[in-house]
Write a structure and sequence with these properties.
By secondary structure, the first copy, chain A, is α/β, with parallel strands linked by helices. In chain A, 45% of the residues lie in helices and 20% in strands. In chain A, the strands form four sheets. Chain A has a four-stranded parallel beta sheet, sandwiched between helices. A three-stranded mixed beta sheet of chain A has the order 1-2-9, sandwiched between helices. A two-stranded antiparallel sheet of chain A has the order 7-8.
Chain lengths: 355, 355
């Protein structure tokens, strides 16, 4: 059993990684939860694969539960779905001492965490992330969110789970494209961490090898993120390094209107930010091509016509990480050495003009 | 200047009470906020009285601001208003380093706190409460909320303000009924605190005297609540005593469908719970009539036909403070000595049958 401890200021919890762990989640859940009622939040993709089995397993262990299924896809991170799920939680009669389980990818995790965070001013919740992106990224750190017209993840809270159970076997039931997009976040972490983690990633030459090394890739990514989050739960400073590749990535993702998956946009963002900073002489020569090599090895995109779209700048100006008329980029001095660099919005166009 | 310090686990802030303080709020705001943009959230009742002056005062001090006005009344504590205010905050371009000011009664405070808590996962906010209820109750403790069909305040967060400015002069512009309802919460606090606070309340024989003694009544109530909240920010235990009179009160309020104001329902709840516990021999004889005397002195209701409605029990069964099939009542052993008593839902009807 691989296990990573996440310690935040007010809470500590474990991320357990094991093939087949979703066959009997109750075994681990009962170590953190007394018997209680719970809602299992899932989506239309994951429901037929796991919801019935998980629900039955929990019922047998005395966790009376109800499954709530939302449509698969980013569109479920909306006010409408949020209010509808919370109404169903209330109709089910959940009390403050009950809980919510998010069973699915990043959308289910972000939405479920927000539901748990808001219902009766906060009930406990656990995550069973089933996509690689959710397993390595959104399942650690306690960020919850929905999207609004003005921006992605613009509404949310910090709400830490009591437990995260990661079953790498779940990846075998996903489209390859979905696993590959999650791998962009793995490359992001590995490039910042360096060392043996980066070496491991350097050995991945095809999508199939992601699955083969999934438990270790997940553990390393989660451990890297857990370390950062432990030191800065609410993104006061250090946690911002997790946004490596995301300023440009988010903008491209938004403008693609669904054509690009989040991880694909992050891949484009990572490629771009490394190229830009290498051209400015801030990133050691050769780093951009090394990172791009890792992304390209599994078929992730390195560029997109949207990078030439002037609206990219406009969207970056509205990024929620903008403050006091400047935007802070995360870049690599070299592999294993992330750093921050602040650019005033007036100079942003010129600075990234070299994309 | 009367001042009460509120210390919670993660944050400390001041509640400043002074007649006329809303003439120049910037003087105090700049002690806790660097210059920043802000949204002033208010409602259609308060807007014409204070919003323009406050906005101008803040602008002159370098706090660029925008006023957002929502319809007065509990109906604004809704998903629709919440999402609409947050969209306007985003359109105004508020960043994480900016802030929100809640200028109004309890509805504006609850809604504004939730907007600030959710926007970009939390921005800072301050409260300028203008009704007595908001000044003595909802402005301290960091509870934010909206209502849903299944219950009042069922969706919310804990989000502490950076500063609370209370102008007792604001009460002079309110309907007497609105000031009197707020006074029910003052009586609630005084009965639990006892001592000089209770003596002060015992001298109030008419609504006009509430205004005369407003600064001290507010200070005593805020200090009592601040002390409780400091020791139990998230209602793990002790904070529950603030629900004195609220279990029955909330049910009656809900069933009255707007006929009873919150404080009027609390008054009915306080009268009922004292009578019930005195009849059960748990409250010292004479306490019920003493508390009822204080409420009746300013014209607050002591009973209502809804108390005979069987739906009161049904609503209490769905109270969000219910857990593990029981409901915990707060009662008084005697004036100045609150205590808790748990009743199983099976026995609830019989227990409160003596209303």
């Amino acid at each position: 059993m691989r296990s990573v401890a996440v310690d935040t200021e007010n809470k500590s919890y474990s991320v357990l990684i094991e093939e087949g762990i979703l066959e009997n989640p109750a075994e681990y859940l009962r170590k953190v939860w007394t018997k209680r009622r719970c809602v299992i939040l899932t989506d239309t993709n994951v429901y037929p694969l796991y919801a019935g089995k998980v629900s039955e397993n929990l019922s047998e262990a005395g966790f009376e539960n109800m499954i709530i299924t939302v449509p698969a896809g980013e569109r479920s991170k909306s006010w409408e779905t949020l209010s509808s799920v919370i109404s169903r939680m209330a109709d089910f009669g959940l009390t403050r001492g009950d809980g919510l389980i998010a069973l699915g990818g990043g959308v289910v995790g972000d939405l479920g965490g927000l539901c748990a965070s808001l219902y009766m001013r906060g009930i406990s919740f656990v995550q069973f992330p089933t996509s690689l992106l959710a397993q390595v990224d959104s399942s650690v750190g306690g960020k919850t969110a929905i999207d609004i017209d003005q921006g992605k993840n613009l509404v949310g809270t910090f709400h830490q789970p009591d437990l995260v159970l990661i079953d790498p076997m779940a990846l075998r039931t996903l489209d390859e494209r979905v696993t590959v997009e999650g791998y962009a976040e793995v490359v992001k972490c590995a490039a910042m961490k360096g060392g043996t983690f980066w070496k491991l990633v350097c050995g991945i030459e095809a999508p199939g090898e992601i699955l083969k090394h999934a438990p270790e890739l997940i553990q390393q990514s989660v451990a890297f993120k857990a370390d950062v989050v432990s030191r800065d739960e609410k993104e006061g400073g250090l946690r911002r390094i997790l946004n490596f590749g995301h300023s440009i990535g988010h903008a491209v993702e938004l403008l693609s209107a669904g054509r690009l998956l989040h991880g694909e946009a992050v891949s484009i963002g990572l490629a771009a930010v490394n190229r830009i900073f290498e051209q400015h002489g801030l990133t050691e020569e050769g780093v951009a091509s090394a990172v791009c090599g890792r992304l390209a090895a599994v078929g992730l995109p390195l560029t997109d016509e949207l990078l030439d779209d002037l609206r990219v700048l406009e969207v970056m100006n509205h990024d929620k990480k903008v403050s006091k008329s400047s935007l802070t980029f995360v870049y690599l001095k070299k592999i294993g050495e992330p750093a921050a660099f602040t650019v005033s919005l007036d100079e942003l166009a010129e600075f990234i003009g070299k994309i």
